[in-house]
Specification:
The protein has helices spanning 3-14, 49-60, 62-65; strands at 20-23, 26-30, 35-36, 46-47, 70-76, 81-82, 88-89, 98-106, 109-117, 122-132, 139-148, 159-165, 175-177. With 184 residues, it is of the alpha+beta class. The longest helix is centred in the N-terminal third of the chain and has 12 residues, at 3-14.
């Protein structure tokens, strides 16, 4: 919410008892010209209809405004490079999946990305700019890391990926990954 909305909410909360009367809805019936704000279940603070409409709008956009720093991993492979003469170049590691770090519910702006071993030692880091994308809440991103995905059956994660929203300073939860395997 905006600072003005916050100030309005504090004023409405402070004045709530003066806007109640006994009536058809009990002792907290709103006086003429006011309605229950209904910002949450049981919210019986009496406000103007415009304030209630603003509260409903703000609540509807809450997920887009909350920096909950959601993170997930996807995988990608490197496609062959077209040489321009009808042939293409590939290497022996092109078909080994690599890790892509994705996120949403970040502030618009810079996000720092890290992959650390479980000991805390840094394995990889990078930055990305979170921006608005249809279908994702808040600022979102996808960053190809180039880091090989070493996950295999029976092999425990030896590292984790994590992101920091630079605007708010908030950190995402840690996502377990497996990195550092030998590739030929």
């Amino acid at each position: 919410m905006t600072p003005a909305t916050r100030t309005q909410t504090l004023a409405d909360n402070a004045a709530k008892a003066s806007r109640w009367t006994s009536g058809p809805f009990g002792p907290h019936t709103c006086v003429t010209g006011y309605v229950w704000r209904e910002a949450f279940t049981g919210d019986d603070v009496c406000v103007t209809p415009a304030v209630r409409a603003q509260a409903k709008l703000d609540n509807g956009k809450a997920a887009d405004r909350r920096v909950s720093a959601r993170l997930w991993i996807s995988r990608y492979t490197v496609p062959p490079v077209d040489n321009g003469d009808g042939t293409s170049t590939s290497t022996s590691v092109d078909d080994i999946p690599r890790l892509k770090i994705n996120g949403d519910h970040f502030n618009i702006g810079q996000v720092r990305l890290y992959i650390r071993y479980n000991t805390g030692r840094l394995y990889w880091s990078g930055t990305v700019s979170a921006s608005a994308h249809s279908g994702y809440a808040g600022g979102s991103f996808g960053k190809k890391t180039g880091v090989f995905d070493c996950a295999a059956a029976g092999k425990a994660a030896n590292a984790y990926a994590q992101a920091q929203d630079v605007v708010s300073g908030r950190w995402s939860p840690r996502l377990p990954v497996r990195v550092g395997c030998a590739v030929l």
